[in-house]
Design a protein that fits this description.
Blueprint: H1 50-58, H2 63-74, H3 90-107, H4 113-122, H5 126-145, H6 150-167, H7 172-180, H8 187-200, H9 204-216, H10 230-247, H11 253-266, H12 272-280, H13 289-297, H14 302-320, H15 338-352, H16 356-367, H17 379-388, H18 392-407, H19 409-414, H20 417-437, H21 439-446, H22 449-459, H23 464-481, H24 498-504, H25 555-558, H26 596-604, H27 609-625, H28 632-645, H29 656-670, H30 672-685, H31 690-708, H32 719-723, H33 738-744, H34 752-777, H35 790-796, H36 805-828, H37 837-854, H38 861-875, H39 881-897, H40 902-908, H41 910-926, H42 931-962
Helix pairs in contact: 1-3, 2-4, 3-5, 4-6, 5-6, 5-9, 8-11, 10-11, 10-12, 12-14, 13-15, 14-16, 15-17, 17-20, 18-20, 18-22, 20-21, 20-23, 21-23, 22-23, 26-27, 26-28, 27-29, 28-29, 28-30, 29-30, 29-31, 30-31, 30-36, 31-36, 31-37, 34-37, 34-42, 36-37, 37-39, 38-39, 39-42, 40-42, 41-42
Length: 963
């Protein structure tokens, strides 16, 4: 602008023509005072371009002038128009930087809602987001250097508020595309979109916001903003991508490609399940939404599709098919959840339409190394198989792959039993559909060599469960092709049980492909979303469950004039009310819950300390009382277990961990076949801290011991019992590095599992030490022994108790844990939270405790032994001493249980025994690890050598006898 700016031109009246007043009056702006505010009287009736706006903004205008400028920049502004600051241009970048550096610090906290919304709209661009992130990073760095500077806190708070306002707009991604890539694509627009993708989906904005949030919060907890929370931010990003895909033109290939680039980057951020859920579910309700979802997913690279499909199937199974119908409902048990299976199949079928890559990935997911959802109920496999059944060629290919895997002798011996069960379910499902579609094909396959050899291999397997699956599949196939009277029958009790009847009824399942809209039939799955994003509370585990997003009118537009309302004056205080407020008096106190639903309701009331304490204190006893009374406990077992597993100590309650653990143990003991697999699933798939996961394993281990008849009442379940003060050391959420933890954790109390394993180690090692001492003391004939009468010995001998654990240990505890561990190992390549030394050690010790509690006479011991061998050989080269200690404890427990049948163990696992003997010998000779590791290794080595020597002696005796 010129230094002289005319503001008024007027004609002089006759009375004033005598005066010498000049016709033009000018205001001079000193060149040495760039920050002098422009007088309001100097506003021109028209601001010609962005140069004028930039000059005014740099001169720190008044609030009225700023309001007019914001009106010019936001009212009816189109891309590439004269006042456009959202399309990336040099002049727009200068204005955006001026707004961030001058306007926001000066005016943000004083602007009205409308003006804040206008200012946020000016910054809703790639340039604006980049500027906000840069300033947040700058202030965060200064905050680290000067933690006590309160002015930095104010500026960071303002930027967070601004960023929240910028991101809150619906169709945020679509707007960025419209303004940043308007018209035909060119190199500048491509670069701008790549920068935006890097900011939003590459983690730049999230990492900077999370660091700033942490600096503002107390310690490492953070102040609790959703923008800095990884899970909530990724869920929001998924929603915005869904909105964009629902709004854009179906023929705009450039924007579809741009959305795909964001998806590819976002899937690498983490929280994939929540991201995939928030992308997929909003497409279910709108007309044509699933077709748009198919168009969104179809162009993705194959590895990205694989990630998307895996997460989607996991979410669908967890939300809609997580509970299987009861097995005792007859041959038509599958009709109970047929509608849910049909809806899931409808969603998958729409995604697979004309997409060969997804179809191949579905087949690989069912028959590949992931095992078709190990540990998940059969519902998700039913949905996928009925979709594939539309193409007989693909279904035949899946059947042949599953049959080849089912019959492979090496796979039968080494695969986790849960994976073998999943494979058998897929095989039976495919067989049922193929028999109805192509009977001749099933006749040919039932008489093929691969099938007959597979049945023979399974009948000769050492695992009882593997033999059971072979017999069930053999009889089911024979029922298809053989006539009455010549059908295969093994004539054993196992094939006539209720479990066997359930397996044989699988081929009769006839699901259909329905409409995906059935997934939204439950009211709790339909969540209305306002434009305003939710904030989170610190120390609260948040899960984003937003499936359908419906636009709701923003109340802020109607409340723009709220600032003009005059509040009522505060009433005068009354001295009579100063002693006690009637609103604070609790006239009706809560009573102890008598129903499980009341217990669950009280546990969820996190705003009341009394209700939390009362419900936790009575939870264990109520659960045990309700065990034998109807189905009340079983109906609420899933919700109650899930809530207790993730419960937080909000009020720093006395003995919180002990009461929570007692309730979980009571659930495990009352419903082992339901709660055991559920806890194993929550440990590997739930969103829990390390302390909560360790608590889950402790509940499984101690519940299994109680089922076996062991008494652990004297073991402290919480730090309060162990040390007498409130703390979280017993189940820590975070651990120091291995070296530091070894130094600082010496005096800390042991967890219940550590105390149990310490006792068991002594019980197993002391007899071997005593035997070695006897050998060193001389021949037994020289020792003096005192003999007791038979009557006295019988009086002191404890009566044997029924081991209830041995009947359910395989399906309830051991196989769900090992099966999901193998699945997590394949999914995360050993780099997930489950493989941290602390949790991996706890997991291994839990397996050892369950194995010891089961006893040597359990029917599933051979298969459990096989899985322990597999885990041992996978982890034997670990460099973590604590993990090696847990592994050696579990191995020693397995060898101790099999010592009574050492010959059978050597006959079935000769290669494993020799390799283990060499490995243990190497540990002992090298002196690897501390004294505890060497003691366990020496004990396991003595057991191994004893078993090998006994087997060799038996073999030599048979050779001499036969010779």
């Amino acid at each position: 602008m010129d230094l002289l700016t005319p503001i008024r031109i007027s004609a002089l009246s006759s009375s004033s023509q005598q005066n010498d007043t000049p016709l033009l009056t000018a205001i001079t702006k000193p060149t040495d005072s760039p920050e002098t505010p422009i007088a309001e009287a100097s506003i021109s009736q028209s601001i010609s371009d962005l140069d004028d706006i930039l000059s005014i903004l740099r001169s720190r205008p008044s609030a009225e002038l700023l309001s007019r400028i914001l009106d010019l920049l936001t009212t009816n502004v189109q891309p590439h128009s004269i006042y456009d600051v959202r399309t990336p241009t040099p002049k727009a970048s200068q204005i955006v930087n001026t707004l961030l550096e001058i306007t926001v610090p000066d005016f943000w906290n004083f602007l009205a809602k409308k003006e804040k919304r206008q200012l946020s709209e000016c910054l809703r661009s790639v340039t604006g987001l980049g500027g906000i992130v840069s300033r947040l990073r700058f202030f965060s760095k200064n905050k680290k250097d000067a933690p006590g500077d309160g002015s930095l806190d104010i500026q960071i708070e303002e930027l967070f508020d601004l960023l929240h306002s910028v991101l809150r707009s619906k169709d945020f991604i679509h707007q960025i595309w419209e303004w940043g890539s308007h018209g035909s694509a060119n190199s500048k627009q491509t670069v701008a979109w790549k920068e935006y993708t890097s900011l939003m989906a590459g983690g730049k904005l999230l990492s900077v916001a999370a660091e700033a949030d942490r600096l503002l919060g107390i310690g490492n907890e953070g102040a609790g903003r959703w923008i800095g929370n990884e899970g909530l931010f990724i869920s929001w990003l998924g929603q915005e991508i869904a909105w964009a895909s629902l709004e854009i033109d179906i023929t705009n290939e450039a924007e579809w490609k741009a959305l795909d680039s964001i998806i590819v980057r976002a899937l690498s951020l983490g929280h994939r399940d929540e991201f995939v859920e928030n992308i997929s579910y909003p497409h279910i309700r709108p007309e044509g939404g699933l077709k748009r979802l198919h168009k969104l997913i179809s162009p993705l690279p194959a590895h990205t599709k694989h990630t998307y499909l895996t997460s989607l199937l996991r979410k669908l199974s967890l939300k809609h098919l997580s509970i299987s119908p009861e097995m005792d409902q007859g041959s038509e048990w599958w009709k109970e959840d047929a509608s849910r299976v049909s809806s899931v199949a409808g969603l998958i079928d729409t995604l697979m339409d004309d997409d060969e890559d997804l179809r191949i990935l579905v087949v690989e997911w069912l028959a590949g190394s992931q095992g078709g959802g190990i540990g998940d109920p059969i519902g998700i496999r039913r949905a996928l198989v009925v979709v594939l059944a539309k193409d007989a060629i693909i279904l035949k290919g899946l059947f042949e792959k599953s049959l080849q895997q089912f019959s492979d002798q090496l796979w039968i011996k080494h695969a986790p039993i849960l994976q073998q069960e999943v494979n058998a379910q897929i095989l039976l499902l495919c067989a049922g559909y193929l028999h109805r579609q192509i009977p001749s094909f099933m006749t040919r396959m039932a008489r093929s060599s691969i099938f007959l050899n597979g049945i023979s291999n399974r009948i000769g397997a050492t695992s009882e469960r593997a033999r059971f699956l072979g017999m069930v599949v053999g009889e089911s196939f024979s029922a298809f092709v053989d006539k009455e009277g010549s059908k295969m029958s093994f004539g054993v009790h196992e094939t006539s049980t209720q479990d066997a009847k359930w397996w044989k009824s699988i081929p009769s399942i006839e699901d259909t492909v329905g409409s995906a809209s059935g997934l939204l039939s439950s009211s709790e799955l339909i969540v209305k979303k306002k434009k305003k994003q939710p904030t989170i509370q610190p120390k609260t585990r948040m899960t984003s469950v937003i499936q359908v997003i419906e636009e709701v009118k923003d109340d802020e537009e109607d409340g723009e004039d709220d600032d003009d309302l005059m509040p009522y004056a505060k009433p005068d205080s009354d001295s009579e009310d100063s002693e006690e407020d009637a609103a604070d008096v609790v006239r009706k106190k809560d009573t102890t819950p008598v129903y499980i639903r009341d217990l669950l309701s009280m546990l969820r009331d996190t705003e009341s300390y009394d209700r939390q304490q009362l419900s936790l204190g009575s939870a264990a006893s109520l659960i045990r009382r309700k065990t034998a009374f109807g189905k009340e406990l079983s109906d609420h077992a899933v919700d109650l277990t899930s809530y207790l597993a993730g419960m937080h100590d909000k009020y720093d309650m006395d003995k919180f961990q002990e009461m929570r653990m007692q309730a979980l143990i009571a659930l495990v003991v009352s419903l082992p076949t339901t709660v055991g697999p559920l806890l194993a699933k929550l440990f590997f798939e739930g969103d829990y801290s390390m302390g909560q996961r360790a608590g889950i394993l402790s509940a499984i281990g101690m519940g299994a011991r109680e089922l076996a008849g062991f008494k652990d009442d004297d073991l402290p379940l919480s730090i309060e019992s162990a040390k007498g003060k409130s703390s979280a050391e017993l189940f820590p959420s975070k651990r120091l590095p291995a070296r530091g933890d070894a130094i600082w954790s010496k005096d800390k109390p042991k967890t219940p599992l550590e105390r149990i394993t310490g006792t068991l180690e002594q019980l197993m090692i002391q007899p071997m030490a005593a035997e070695a001492a006897d050998q060193a003391a001389g021949p037994n004939i020289l020792k003096v022994r005192t003999f007791s009468s038979r009557i006295e010995v019988e009086k002191k001998r404890a009566k044997p108790a029924e081991n209830k654990l041995s009947r359910v240990v395989a399906e309830a505890f051991f196989f769900p844990l090992t099966g999901r561990w193998w699945a997590a190992l394949k999914d995360y390549s050993g780099r997930g939270i489950h493989f941290t030394p602390f949790l991996l050690t706890t997991f291994l010790k839990t397996l050892g405790i369950i194995l010891h509690a089961t006893g040597p006479s359990a029917p599933a011991l051979p298969q459990m032994t096989n899985e322990i061998w597999e885990v041992t050989f996978n982890l034997r080269h670990t460099g973590e001493e604590t993990v090696l200690e847990g592994l050696l404890f579990t191995l020693l427990t397995m060898l101790d249980l099999n010592s009574e049948n050492g010959v059978g163990l050597a006959r079935d696992y000769p290669k494993e025994l020799i390799e283990t003997q060499e490995w243990l010998g190497g540990i002992v000779v090298a002196g690897k690890g501390g004294s505890k590791v060497l003691g366990l290794a020496s004990g396991a080595l003595l057991r191994t050598e004893a078993i090998v020597k006994e087997f060799q002696r038996r073999i030599m005796g048979e050779v001499v006898r036969d010779g």
